[in-house]
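Thread: tRNA1(Val) A37 N6-methylase TrmN6, structure

OP (GT): Posting the sequence first so everyone is looking at the same thing. Length is 253 residues per the record. Can we get the structure tokens written out before standup tomorrow? I want them in the notebook alongside the other entries.
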Amino acid sequence: MKQVPLLPTERIDDLLTYDLKIIQSDEVFSFSMDAVLLGRFSSVPPKGRIIDLCTGNGVVPLLLSTRTRAEIWGVEIQERLADMAVRNADINDLSERLHMVQGDLKTIHKTLGHGQFDAVTVNPPYLPVPNGEQNSNAHFAAARHEIHCTLEDVVAASAKLVKAGGKVAMVHRATRVVDIICLMRQYRIEPKRIRYVHARAGEEAMMVLIEGMKDGKPEIRTLPPLIVYTENEEYCQELKEIYYGGRSALEFS
């Protein structure tokens, strides 16, 4: 593991898969299961160019690096998180393949180009900006609420960045699935694969994983649901394999 500078509140955590390490801090939003599932669900080319929007501290690019030799860009608007993403690439000796950029996803195509990426991944903020009081921690507020970008901003940006035939994969709240599908079609990203994530059997879906193809033909596959917890309140076998780098979970479909 390469040595990198840490701020006083930062720590180095184990990602549990492929010996990856990640710098985190309680002062900013840490990665969650959503990002891990996205990193395994998304289709990735064996080589080429991938971009991860709303990358935070760069966890999705780190996970994707275990599945492909492609070059991967991460885009994060918050300076603190973008700096952590840069150092997370460095600490894992991946700086030559992982390029972390501080920038606004709404305009990043002006820097990185139209239609230059084979795949786009994104774990965006889930909630509309509240009318009343919101989290006093700006990092937490931006991670949870659409302060810097709306869902439409995310889909529009993805459509500009991905090439024809390229894939766009997203994780979001299951309650937003209609919005996601409508916006994808509006921006010529045809939904192709969808999978719902349930906390427990018999409960309604809490998350949705969805992937579309730029200028693809209409047809969607609904994959078997993922049930996170067993009857014994343990992670299901599939999740254990994902977290510990099980080869059988790499395609996640």
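GT: Both are above now. Quick notes for whoever picks this up: Confidence is low (pLDDT under 50) at residues 247-253. DSSP finds eight helices and eleven strands in the chain.
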